[in-house]
Structures are given as structure tokens and as C-alpha cells.
From TrEMBL:
Catalytic activity: 1-(5-phospho-beta-D-ribosyl)-ATP + diphosphate = 5-phospho-alpha-D-ribose 1-diphosphate + ATP
Residues passing through the membrane, by range: none
Top-level EC class as recorded in UniProt: transferase
Protein name: ATP phosphoribosyltransferase
Major location (coarse): cytoplasm
Assembly and oligomerization: Heteromultimer composed of HisG and HisZ subunits.
Name of the gene this protein is made from: hisG
Subcellular location: Cytoplasm
Domain text: Lacks the C-terminal regulatory region which is replaced by HisZ.
Family as reported in the entry's similarity comment: Belongs to the ATP phosphoribosyltransferase family. Short subfamily.
A molecular-function term among this protein's GO annotations: ATP phosphoribosyltransferase activity
Protein's UniProt keywords contain Cytoplasm: yes
Keyword RNA-binding among record annotations: no
């Protein structure tokens, strides 16, 4: 069987930049930008396979070896705490984790005044770690979407979420009162694949690292 290099690409906002980066690194990306519901793209000649999946599933595909490499946000990596090798900070897809409260509640107050409150989030691991490190006791409520709704209906006092422009917070009368950390897209690898396919993976990693560095210099 051909020894393919399999790369997991994230659907959504990181997809276009991910494909552009791999193309710039010299990989064939034919078909990846076509309007299609295909989830697997194989290039027999170059020994390449791409799998297209939800960003939150990429750490699992890579950890279990279904993909050798993957591109995924640092926010997902931290939240899932999978056994991955983080190879390159790709510097795109920036967002940040924040603690946000209703504007009327936040006025003139700091986060320490909200001990023993309820926090809604899609990222319970990040939230629990953050508040534990701050010495605060909170009840973390896991939701799968529409986090901004939780304070409006009395489900939670505050939220932990990722924001890029802050527009969604503003439109829901929420305000960020504490940054947790910033996150960008990362190139990650399965540990075994990195060792067994080192001759294929390392030149690609070096090339991607060089591209990212050149863009930083030019910007």
C-alpha cells in the first residue's frame, strides 16, 4: 500500500487560509476549493490525502493516526488537551478567549467580584482552568452554541467564549472584562507519524515555517 501523507483540514473560517498555505508550500491542492461535499481528496501521484472535517474533530483524527498532520486552532488544542505535536504557529485565524458579562452588570466591577457565580461556555476545560488559577469557585455550564444567550435568560452570570472582532458580544449587550489567552491556527502532527514519516513531514514543516516567517517580515 502506498505510504500516503494524510492531512486533516478544518471546515469553516480556517479552511481557505489552510489551503492557500499548503499550496504555497508546494503541495498539490487541486480540487480543494471546488464547491463540493467530498470529505476525502487523494492525489496518487504525490502520495497525498486530504480529509476535510469539523475543526473540533481534527485533534481526534490526528491523535488516533487517521491523519498524520492537521491544521487546527490553538483554542481547540487547549480545550481538548489531546496528545499531539504542535509544530508551527501559522499566525492566521486569530481569536481570543475572554470572560464576558452583561454590560449593566460589568460597570465599575472587576472579575474577582463574581466568585461563586455560574459560567456558560463551549470550553469547560479552559474555563475551569482559568477560574481555578484565579482562585475562584464557579459553576461551569457546558453549552454547544449561542453562548451569548445564557446571561440574557438567567442561565448564567457570565460567559467564557472566543471572540475575533467582538461584534457578537456588542450586539448582545455583553462586554469582555478579562482576556484569557489569544489563539491562532497551528500545524499539528501525530507523534508516531512524525517519527515514521519524518522524511516527508520535516521538509514540509520547514517550508511552512519559512513561509510564515517571511510573511511576518513583510507585514
Amino acid at each position: 500500500m502506498r505510504n500516503f501523507l494524510t492531512i486533516a483540514l478544518p471546515k469553516g473560517k480556517l479552511y481557505e487560509d489552510s489551503v492557500d498555505l499548503l499550496q504555497e508550500a508546494g503541495l498539490c491542492t487541486e480540487g480543494l476549493k471546488e464547491d463540493s461535499r467530498k470529505m476525502v481528496f487523494t492525489n496518487e501521484v504525490e502520495g497525498l490525502k486530504y480529509i476535510i472535517c469539523r475543526p473540533t474533530d481534527i485533534p481526534t483524527f490526528v491523535e488516533y493516526g487517521a491523519a498524520d498532520l492537521g491544521i487546527v486552532g490553538k483554542d481547540t488544542i487547549v480545550e481538548q488537551d489531546k496528545d499531539l505535536m504542535e509544530l508551527v504557529d501559522l499566525r492566521f485565524g486569530y481569536c481570543r478567549f475572554v470572560v464576558a458579562l452583561p454590560e449593566v452588570t460589568a460597570q465599575g466591577r472587576d472579575l474577582s467580584q463574581f466568585n461563586h457565580r455560574r459560567v456558560a461556555t463551549k470550553f469547560p476545560y479552559v474555563a475551569e482552568n482559568f477560574f481555578r488559577q484565579r482562585g475562584m469557585q464557579v459553576e461551569v455550564i457546558k453549552l454547544h452554541g449561542n453562548i451569548e444567550l445564557a446571561p440574557a435568560v438567567g442561565l448564567a452570570d457570565m460567559i467564557v467564549d472566543i471572540v475575533s472582532t467582538g461584534r457578537t458580544l456588542r450586539e448582545n449587550q455583553l462586554v469582555a472584562i478579562e482576556d484569557i489567552f489569544g489563539a491562532t491556527a497551528r500545524l499539528v502532527a501525530n507523534r508516531v507519524a512524525y517519527r515514521l514519516k519524518h522524511q516527508k513531514i520535516q521538509p514540509l514543516v520547514d517550508c511552512v515555517r519559512s513561509i510564515v516567517k517571511d510573511k511576518e517580515v513583510r507585514s
